Amino acid sequence: MPRARTASRPRRRAGVLAAVTAALALTGTQAAAAGSPASAVGPLRGHDVSSHQQHVDFPAARSDGARFTYIKATESTTYQNPYFDRQHEGARQAGLIRGAYHFARPDRSSGAEQAAYFVQHGGDWRADGWTLPPALDIEYNPYDNKHECYGLDRTRMVDWIRSFSDEVERETGRRPVIYTTADWWQACTGDSHAFAANHPLWIARHGTSDPGELPGGWTHWTFWQFGTEGGLPGDQNLFNGPPSLLQAFAQGW
Q1: pTM reported for the whole predicted model
Q2: What average pLDDT does the chain have?
Q3: Do the Cβ atoms of 176 and 164 come closer than 8 Å?
Q4: Residues 75, 137, 171, 235: which is the catalytic one?
Q5: Contact at 8 Å (CB) between 250 and 131?
Q6: Is 136 helix (H, G, I), strand (E, B) or coil?
Q7: Is 106 helix (H, G, I), strand (E, B) or coil?
Q8: Per-residue pLDDT tens for 186-221?
Q9: DSSP class of residue 143?
Q10: 139 is known as an active-site residue
Q11: Number of helical H runs and strand E runs in the chain
């Protein structure tokens, strides 16, 4: 399968390690996750991986500062990450809070169908304190630059995302985290505010010292993917809060 996440627009921008330093300097009043202020401890480092990374040394990643990871589970209704089970369990054994993400293909099937497939193949959630809520990766079409919104108009795209979210909530009890970029969200949903109130935001913005203006009515980010380089396997991320808040977020708060 194509490496959709690494081929997509946010990953074409060079990541810079300086972004970590700048982001970790955020004060407690600047940081907020899952709707609650974070402490002055600042954001936590993490990463996301897929089948492209294959054999991830999670104990080494934790030694290098990782405290969480997201792992690609599925794409459309036809692809499963063949390394998912090994990666998911390996992260847990290394002491990382981990979750699964689905790469959306709105041109292939309905949101509900893809959500059901995702949940059945790694996207489930349990309140064990080690499992992050399921995440929907929805962004520029890496397979067709002429149809960056997958051939859907803005109304149909919002309906597709809502269908995916409703099915994930029905099956897991949680709304998904939404991974996207501000420019894609504007272009393909019309900067819809329909999801900000009850969907944590995973914003992608590379090569900068801050995540920039947030899309669609979101007032804070929960995760920020800031680059591809920074010492951890895969893409580099921050969680907008201290360890206690990450633990609570995983448990369902």
Answers
A1: 0.86
A2: 87
A3: yes
A4: 137
A5: yes
A6: strand
A7: coil
A8: 999 999 999 999 999 999 999 999 999 999 999 999
A9: T
A10: yes
A11: 8, 11
